[in-house]
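Posted in: Structural Biology > Protein-Ligand Complexes

Title: Requesting predicted complex, MF3 in pocket

I'd be grateful if someone could produce the 3D structure tokens for the following input. Sequence and ligand are given below.
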Amino acid sequence: MSITIKTPEELEYMRVAGRLAGEVLDYIAPFVLPGVTTAELDRLCHDYMVNVQGCIPAPLNYSPPGYQPYPKSICTSVNHQVCHGLPNDRTLKKGDIVNLDITTIKDGWHGDTSRMFNVGGTASILANRLVTIAHECLWLGIGEVKPGARLGDIGAAIQRHAESHGFSVVREFCGHGIGLKFHEEPQVLHYGKPGEGLRLEEGMTFTIEPMINAGKATVSELPDGWTIVTKDRSLSAQWEHTIAVTASGYEVMTLSAGAPPNPFAT
Ligand code: MF3
Ligand code: CO
Ligand code: CO
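-- Reply #1 --
Done. Output follows.
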């Protein structure tokens, strides 16, 4: 399969799926408190998506080659967990940082977005800085998106910002094309060189979802077959939006009322 260019009508469907995914994060935010388990957050999001929004949680039973079917409806990655954190009976504690990653399917179209949450509002100075820099990385990447720009421009902007603050960029996982499929071409790396890689065209849709580590970039997989952690057990943070390339730049498809704004907006 190659890169799909979406028509204006298809983009309208993606806008709906994207907004719904953002609204799941708005809905769940007040529940992300000390004492809640990640399995409870999963159940609440599942019920909201299915019963309130009338959409399908894309992760549930998702089984890419080489993986067992994903048994939950969202991903919950806590502290040194990088991504694909499998919800379980773990109780969130004051000072934890957690990424909640939501992917909806509405009328066949996907919307994929994630945010970080500070549990109890008392994260360490390091954790707060990591979460803030990772969010800035996301928006610096988004800011590179326009027709004629290269995928390497996105990766380079993210890598430069993360590394200039002493953090590292995870290499094993990347952003991805998205549409009728959850993961399509192209792969959107969060590191690279300006001017290299695929040239962006109007109508392309993909995610940008940098995973930024406080320590080394290397990761490993837990025995649950899904959860990815930093090998050195350092903290990790990730933010994600689904983006469309427009005639003049970009459109963020996964914005919702509660989404933190672009920190560089003037
Ligand atoms: N939402 C993740 C992403 O951003 C993918 C999760 S796959 C799952 O690409 F199976 F773990 F849910
Ligand atoms: Co994604
Ligand atoms: Co995601």
